Each structure stands twice: as C-alpha cells, then as structure tokens.
Amino acid sequence: MKKLSLPPALGNVWQLLLGIVLMSFGICLISAVHLGTTPISSLPWALAKITEFSFGTTTFFCNLCFLLIQIILLRKEFSKLNFLQIPLVFLFSLSTDFWMWFLSDLPDLSYWMLLLLSLLGNVFLALGVAFEVRSKSIPLPGEGLVIAVSVVSRQPFYRIKIGNDVTMVILAAIAGWVFLQEIYGIREGTIISAFVVGIFVKFFSKLLDRIWPLNQEG
Fold this sequence. Notes:
By secondary structure, the protein is mainly α. Helices cover 73% and strands 0% of the residues. The chain has 8 helices and no strands. The chain has helices spanning 8-32, 42-51, 55-74, 85-102, 111-135, 141-153, 157-180, 188-211. The chain is globular, with a radius of gyration of 17 Å.
C-alpha cells in the first residue's frame, strides 16, 4: 500500500480541516434521518428545534459555552492558543449548516435504510475524529472541555468523555421536555452512535497509521 507524505505543518492542517468537514457531515447525516443525533450534538440539536436557529448556529454558541467553562476551570493554565478553538468551531458550524442544507431533501426511505444511513454517518464521524486526533492540533471546544475537566479532576479522559456525553443527553432531554413537551432527537441512533463511534475511530486510526504514518509528520 502506497504511503502518503506531506510536510509536518501542512499535514497537520489538512488532517484537521478534513477531520472537521468529515465530522460535521457525519453528525448531519446521523441527525438528518431523524433517528436520533449523536450524544455530543444532542443539546445543540434540541436547542435548534426550540429556538428555530440553525443547527450550526446552536452548535457554535454551545461550543462557546464549552470554551468559557474551560477558562473557568483552567484559569491561569488556560493557554491563549486555545482561543483558536473559536475559528475552528466557527468553521465546523458553517460546515454543519452547509451539510444540513445539502441533506435537507432526503427522499422517503424505509426505516432500515434510514438506520443504515445513520450508521454510515457514524462511519464518517469516526473517520473525521481519527483525522482530528492525528493532526495533533487545537481540539474543538467539546473535546477541549473534556480535556480540561480531566486535568482538573485528575480522572481519565475516557471516563470524563462518557460523563460529558451523558450530561449532554440529559440536558437535551430536559430542554426538549420543558419547551417542546417531548424528548427530541434522542432515539436509537443516539445509542448506536454512543457505542460504535469509538470502535470505528480505533479502526480508522490503525488504518491511517499504515497509509499516512505519523512519524513522517514530525
């Protein structure tokens, strides 16, 4: 298998940007079939329905809140470089609105086809996450919040990640119940995403290590 090679800085930037585009497409595909969005996007998805703002807009403002919490938690340890999370999540939010527009005219499909599309969305999401992680760049605020809580609490990242996802789902369920009188956007697709994304990320990370070794990027 032919291996790819790019200058370290260029390779990092392109992997980060590609990761953002793939992640936003995956999340939008999962959400557009209306079988439940991803755990991390459940709150912005519910808020988009409540406020009638776009999914990208609520995603952006939720992530600004995540960044603010990071600043509060880390205080002097919060690096100014982390403010680069703002343009990153702005790009992510723009990409989200583009993909939601692109997927707005999905045809009527059977339940099993919709479930298959939801699963395919998780594949794209996981591939995007794998590229984002490999870029070794500034994380999106959602991940940055998990890192900050992990540092402050001295708990493993994976444990805080699970707690964060559960918290987002609970907040989304409460918001939906209070303002819409229903639990909106939390269905079987949400549960599937919670279980399979990590597995897919591990698979794609190993595959990309063979195609695009990290030691060629510095």
